[in-house]
Write a structure and sequence with these properties.
This protein is α/β, with parallel strands linked by helices and about 300 residues long. It has nine helices and twelve strands. It has a domain of about 200 residues: Rossmann fold (3-Layer(aba) Sandwich), CATH 3.40.50. Helix content is about 40%, strand content about 15%.
Length: about 300
């Protein structure tokens, strides 16, 4: 399946491009300079040039706090862009795979969220992502929306890279301990997407929305300790920083964070007959990549 990756320079996009090439999938990588999905003419041009069977939208406005002050920009990228992709895919018979988020939920549930739970985003970011989901479901004919959570990887900035950077300073850290979710390795997301698209011609799973994240459930405080413990074992840090657990109330942010954003992934696991990936091997892989890169700075990821 010839696959066009939109947002190919981002955290997930780079994993998609690298893994796709390793798997022998014909990949066309498009960053924003090559394809601005908020411009329909860019999409039309890319489709004429690449003639893809699948378009994966890995582009997104993800600055959760900044979105509170940049509402128009967040909706332009997270709603208008996906709407343009959905229209073009429907017109050309192309399958669209779109990445969404746990932030479409308010975090008030006492159990993991299933796909049919009513969204109730409490942030501009969450509302903009939900708007993108809704327009795709309404206008695309062949689509998969993959909601995921707490994404980390070897590329770009994420919670893991931030913790290591702060930990190297040797200062005391305060990390929220009452927000629960499931970290997800970007490489695992790329893998599940290609598992889905590989079955488009034979034994295709139903179109629609699916939840996919790593396991097990954790909180940011425990996740940070797992990061530092592993970094110490890999001799990436000289000593463990002191990490103090704090509440959400004690650590206010411009945009509210869901207290419970665990996703129930039973639907996709049953459809593909697979188990959820543990996030710890992914964390180890990412840290080992960074360690190797620090030892061989001339090598690029």
């Amino acid at each position: 399946m010839k696959t066009l990756v939109v947002g190919a320079n981002g955290q997930l996009g780079r994993e998609l491009v690298n893994l796709g090439k390793q798997m022998g999938i014909p990949i066309i990588a498009s960053g924003r300079a090559e394809l601005d999905m908020t411009r329909p003419e860019d999409i039309s041009s890319a489709i004429r040039f690449a003639r893809p069977d699948v378009i994966i939208n890995a582009a997104s406005y993800t600055a959760v706090d900044k979105a509170e002050e940049e509402t128009d920009q967040a909706f332009l990228i997270n709603r208008t862009g996906p709407a343009n992709l959905a229209t073009a895919c429907a017109k050309n018979g192309i399958t669209l795979v779109h990445i969404s988020t746990d932030y479409v939920f308010d975090g008030a549930a006492e159990r993991p969220y299933i796909e049919t739970d009513t969204p109730n985003p409490e942030t501009v970011y969450g509302r903009s992502k939900l708007a993108g989901d809704e327009v795709i479901a309404a206008s695309a004919e062949r689509y998969y929306i993959i909601r995921t959570s707490w994404v980390f990887g070897a590329y770009g900035q994420n919670f893991v890279s931030t913790m290591l950077r702060l930990g190297e300073k040797g200062e005391e850290l305060k990390v929220v301990a009452d927000q629960f979710g499931c970290p997800t390795w970007a490489r695992d997301i790329a893998s599940i997407i290609f598992t889905i698209t590989a079955r488009l011609e034979n034994d295709r799973i139903p179109w629609g929305t699916y939840h996919y994240s790593g396991a097990p459930k954790t909180n940011w405080y425990d996740f940070s300790n797992a990061i530092f413990d592993l970094a110490a074992r890999l001799e990436m840090i000289d000593r463990l920083p002191r990490v103090l657990p704090v509440s959400t109330e004690e650590s206010p942010t411009l945009a509210m964070r869901p207290l419970m954003s665990v996703l129930d992934c039973s639907k996709i696991m049953d459809a593909l007959d697979i188990t959820r990936p543990n996030w710890e091997p992914g964390l180890k892989a990412v840290l080992e990549i960074w360690k190797q890169q620090s030892q061989n700075p001339e090598e690029t990821l």
